[in-house]
Structures are given as C-alpha cells and as structure tokens.
Amino acid sequence: MAGYYKDRMVHELRRKADSRLRPVTDDGYRWANTANAFTARFASSPGEGFLSFGVQGREFRLTSVGSRAVEGRVAGSAVDYAGAYPGADLHYAVISTGVKELIRLADASAPTSYEFRLEGPATGPPASVEARPEGSYAVSVPPLDGPAFVLEAPTVTEAAGPGELSPPDPGANPRLTVEPDGRDFVLRVSVDPGWLRAPGRQFPVEIDPTLTIQPDVEDATFVTAPNYVPGTWERLYIGGSSDT
Fold first, then answer.
1. Omega before 204 within 30 of 0, i.e. cis
2. How far apart are CA 42 and CA 59, in angstroms?
3. Is residue 176 within 8 Å of 151, Cβ to Cβ?
4. Rounded to an integer, what distance in angstroms lies between the CA atom of residue 244 and that of residue 229?
5. DSSP letter, residue 146
C-alpha cells in the first residue's frame, strides 16, 4: 500500500506541474505549457510579445527587438527559434521554476548585445524592478508579497566538445541591464566582444539569462541539537533524539 500511495503522489505532482508545450489557438499564440503554477505561451515566431507568461493573475509579455520572423520548432517543453538573429538562435525551455532562455551564438560574427522589451500588466498598479548585488533583477507587482519573478544574472558558456559545454566563464563579462520605460522595461543582455572574438573560442557560445517565475520566498536555518521544546518560533527544527 505504501508503494501505491507513493506512486499516486508522484503522479499527482507530475500532473500538476507539467512543463510540456501543447498546441493552442489563443490570442495569436501557438504553444502553451500544460500545467504549472504559472502560464507560459509562445508565438510561432519571435517578435512583438512572442512570449507571454502569467503570475498570479498578472500577465507579462516579452518582445525580442530586431529579431527575424523565423518559424519556431517545439520539442517537449522547449521551443527553438533558429536564426532569430544573424548567427544566433533563441531557445526557451519551460521548467518547473520558470523559463530558461538561451541565446546560442554560432560564431564570432554574432551580435554581442540583445535587446528585449518586457511589458508589465496593462491595468492595476505598475510593476517595479530592484537590482540585486549579484546582477539579477527582482520584479514586484503590488499587492503580491515578494518578487513575482526574478531576471537572473546571465552566464556564458562555450563548447567543450561534441554536445558538451564548459563551465560558465566570468571572463566573458555577461551583463543584464533593466531600465523602466513607463509601465514596461527595456532589457539588454550582452557579452564582452573581445572575449567572444578571441582566437580559439569554441562555438556555439550560449548566453543564459534565465527567468525564475517561482523564486524562493523564505530561507530557513536548521540547527542540530539533542533536545527540542515545542514552540512557535521563526526557526523550523528538524531531527530527533532518544526521546523525541
């Protein structure tokens, strides 16, 4: 019986958090994630509002500025827009905690800077953005408690062999800047041109500015001790002793 309930629980978790993209016909969007705490919809090609995601009833739309209208291809939970820019592809994968974005550069001739426009909710209080020390940006929307999502600090990796990538290289000096523009935001992702065009660079190079839609909301401290006394504190005690 224990195995039965465990299997049922795993099935329910998978059912409620299914990141696979399915075909839809919804306000010009072609694919949407199956089930999750957030919705993500993709248009058939990049451009104006090609990615829409909803967080607790608030909708945001992402536009890729200057991209080509190439046809997207879906496999599982990922969509590829090959050739969205000269020498660069856009790749998106819906995961349980958000949308993983990759800008895949084919060679040293690819652009080193990419601009996106993030449209905030059309009604209600406007969204606000807060820069974090490590290079990420937290986006908040009143009256939601905490950030609605986080624009993670980008990382850059280069190829290490067939189907392999090296660890992120801070020498690439990846940067993300976010500037408010009315109710919207202008996002710019860049990599150091000298690093990209250095002799011996292995391609493809991938810039990863992941979007975390379900960030951590609380941290916990765990203390190891022989005895515990029940109480309502800010700390959650986990463990056991000979009598507890």
1. yes
2. 13
3. yes
4. 9
5. S
Strands 38-42 and 78-85 turn out to be: unpaired
The label of the residue with tokens 């790749």 reads 91
- 207 in Cβ contact with 191 (< 8 Å): yes
Spatial distance between the Cα atoms of 92 and 168, rounded to a whole number of angstroms: 19
Contacts of 73 (CB under 8 A, 6+ apart): 79, 80, 82
Element (H, E) at 196: helix 193-196
Dig out the tokens for 101 from the structure: 């974005």
Give the predicted TM-score (pTM) of the model: 0.79
The amino acid at residue 108 is A
Between CA 191 and CA 67 the distance in angstroms is 18
The dihedral region occupied by 44, where left means phi > 0, alpha psi between -120 and 50, and beta the remainder, is alpha
Tens digit of each residue's pLDDT (9 = 90 or more) over 100-136: 999 999 999 999 999 999 999 888 889 999 999 999 9
Identify each DSSP E strand in the chain by its residue range: 18-26, 29-35, 38-42, 51-55, 58-64, 73-75, 78-85, 88-95, 98-105, 113-119, 128-131, 137-140, 149-151, 155-161, 164-165, 175-181, 184-190, 205-208, 211-212
Give the three-state DSSP class for 107. coil
As given in the structure block, the two tokens for residue 199 are 């002799």
Q: Are 143 and 137 in contact (CB under 8 A)?
A: no
Section 142-150 average pLDDT: 85
Instruction: Round to whole Å and give the CA distance between 181 and 120.
Output: 10
Query: Is residue 83 within 8 Å of 89, Cβ to Cβ?
Result: yes
